[in-house]
Specification:
The chain is an alpha/beta fold and 259 residues long. It has a domain of 180 residues: 2-enoyl-CoA Hydratase, Chain A, domain 1 (Alpha-Beta Complex), CATH 3.90.226. The protein has eleven helices and ten strands. The longest helix is centred in the first third of the chain and has 16 residues. The model has no long low-confidence stretch (mean pLDDT 97). The structure holds (2S)-sulfonatepropionyl-amino(dethia)-CoA (YZS). The site of (2S)-sulfonatepropionyl-amino(dethia)-CoA has 19 residues, from helix 3 and helix 4.
Length: 259
């Protein structure tokens, strides 16, 4: 069964997340389809891509498919994890990607949206950084996505509390480009997409790559990197990580003991 659908209008492509039953959780299957759609749009030389969910959804995406997280003693968010592939694909994609969001956005999906080039939201949107709810050690480049998208004090509050930030607050903090009434979401989003598509694609594409490289220009020493990986390992080797996964599957609140 297709988990996304696609359409195109002139130089603008659209990917619609289409698995509302599972709240558009980012399974490897859904991400595979999404990456294939992006590749097809790139091969056809489209000039702007919109990623959206079905109109009226309460949940834009529930984030990483928790059922696919490993059962401990393995980095749950390593280099080959599907969410990492998708974030890399969007940020290295030579075409601007616009996230059009109504409804809540959780965890890995929050990173996916914030990795997009332009974000247009309805007042129903909200954003949560959730690793602390599950005891997941978020990966290092993912933390950089958050830091590039929001002030450090906001990232800290969002990461430590795991509470959703409202659409209005996300806009006030500069995390998103536009907040518009839901009836205007498509008009504004596709207006931006058409403006981009009317411009010089080589120049747009190279500016996108320049910004990606400049945003990522944070040197980390080998020792610092190894320290962070070692600290992350303590988390995914912990009892709390297993408890976080178990509690989600059993639909109950986790009881964390810090070990
Ligand atoms: O019971 P069924 O089979 O119908 O399935 C339910 C949910 O189990 C499923 N589902 C998910 N399955 C896998 N992974 C998910 N993230 C996920 N979210 C939901 O979808 C079916 C409908 O879910 P309900 O809970 O009944 O829907 P609803 O009452 O509308 O509540 C929607 C929310 C989104 C509030 C609720 O599903 C929820 O809290 N989901 C988990 C949100 C979350 O914490 N996501 C972060 C996932 N973690 C990550 O992205 C990173 C690894 S990290 O943890 O590091 O941030």
């Amino acid at each position: 069964m297709a988990l996304i659908s696609t359409s195109r209008d002139g130089f603008v492509g659209t990917v619609t997340l289409d698995n509302a039953e599972k709240r558009n959780a980012l399974s490897s299957a859904l991400i595979g389809e999404l990456c294939d759609a992006l590749a097809a749009f790139r091969d056809d030389h489209l000039r702007a891509v919109v990623i959206r969910a079905q109109p009226g959804v309460k949940v834009w995406s529930a984030g990483f498919n928790i059922d696919e997280l490993p059962e401990g003693h393995r980095d749950p968010l390593g280099w080959d994890d599907p969410v990492r592939h998708l974030v890399r694909e969007i940020s290295r994609y030579p075409i601007p990607v616009i996230a059009m969001v109504e409804g809540s956005v959780w965890g890995g999906a929050c990173e996916v949206v914030l990795a997009c080039d332009i974000i247009v939201i309805a007042p129903t949107a909200s954003f949560a950084i959730t690793p602390a709810k599950l005891s997941v050690p978020y990966n290092i480049s993912g933390m950089l996505t958050f830091l590039n998208a929001a002030p450090a004090c906001t990232v800290r509050e969002m990461a430590f509390t795991a509470k959703p930030v409202s659409a209005a607050r996300a806009f006030d903090l500069g995390m998103v480009n536009h907040i518009v009434p839901v009836e205007e979401l498509e008009t504004v989003t596709y207006g931006i997409a058409r403006d981009i598509a009317a411009n010089a694609p080589l120049a747009v594409s190279v500016m996108k790559e320049q910004l990606r490289i400049l945003e990522g220009a944070h040197p980390v020493s080998p020792e610092g990197f190894e320290r962070l990986q070692g600290l992350r390992r303590v988390v995914y080797d912990s009892q709390d990580y297993l408890e976080g996964l178990r509690a989600f599957k059993q639909k109950r609140k986790p009881v964390f003991e810090g070990k």
